[in-house]
Amino acid sequence: MMEHDMREKAKNAMRLILEAARYEVEEVDDPLDLSAVRDSTCLLVLCSNDKDLIGQFDKTNYSLMIDDHEMNCKKLLFTMEKEILTDNCIQWGVDEFVRYTGEAVLADILDRELSLDLTPTKAKKAAVTAAAAAKEEEPSGITIPHLPIKITEQAAIRTAGVQGVAKLRFIPHFLFHYTSSGEQVYKDRRIPFDADGWGAINAINGIRIDLDGKQIEETEIPNGADICDSHIRKDEASERIVVELIERLTQKVRIKQEKGDAIFYEEKILKPDRKNITIDSKQIYIPVWQIRGKKIVEVNAFTGELLSEPMDEGCEVF
Question: Which residues fall within 8 angstroms of residue 241, CB to CB, at 6 or more apart?
Fold first, then answer.
């Protein structure tokens, strides 16, 4: 049985976790420990290693009456007894307790909402088993050039800081390599226009990013992922790169001249010749986790960075 002091410490830590997830938490009468309410969700919390008490908690249905409205309560159990299994509770052991306690502290430091997985233990295990079997039995069969997926679904949800359903999406980009050469000479000034570099343009919203393409792989994507359609044509993206490169390499030259007692300056705008610019481009995809909850948040599945502008249309589902 969990000792009184240990149970108090566990209860205090569970309060910290739930408050970081924006729940209103209160203590309740024995044998339970806490109640937590957020929007239409009510949680009852028990911290115990007592098999009989846990069994009673697991089989009992609880409800909460708020303003004449009855809410069915979910049950959250924290136990350090690995042999105990429940059918109707969200069951946390030492691993979940340590994980969420640390994440709650970090969420408080960053002033960010903590995201909790409140799937009942039995349903969670069944879903994981079914999903694993489905993925093994039904490979996507779709191979596209893309950046590798380095961020897991759960890591993306934690980064997003919202509760919701995560979906893997592949966002089209045009990866380009540009080169520029040539020069112009004006008076005694020689202006070179040499340039060489890589980058990419988002084929949906036109946002340009730095990307050298060395880590692009052409492999099969996970089953159930979305492949988004391009809204920008390849030739439009290439023309934009040419225009931006010409603008970046253009120089204003000012030359000082003297005639007798007079001094004057002459200015000249020198631009690279379009025929000396080469653009090589191809379409690639960047994996993104989209989390849909109270709001839509997207996380780059390669870098783990939050995206500033979610893209919600133009997807084909495979």
Answer: 176, 178, 199, 201, 279, 281
What is the sign of the dihedral through the CA atoms of 121, 127, 131 and 137?
A: positive
Give the model's confidence band at 311: pLDDT under 50 very low, under 70 low, under 90 confident, else very high: low
As a whole number of angstroms, the distance between CA 155 and CA 178 comes to: 35
Contact yes or no for 282/304 (Cβ under 8 A): no
**Residue 314: strand, helix, or coil:** coil
What is the pairing mode between strands 165-180 and 277-292?
antiparallel
Interhelix angle 94-110/4-20, rounded to 10 degrees, is 50
pTM above 0.70, yes or no: no
Taking alpha carbons only, the member of 150, 180, 155, 181 closest to residue 166 is 155
How many Å apart are CA 35 and CA 37, to the nearest integer?
A: 7
How far apart CA 235 and CA 275 sit, in angstroms, is 16
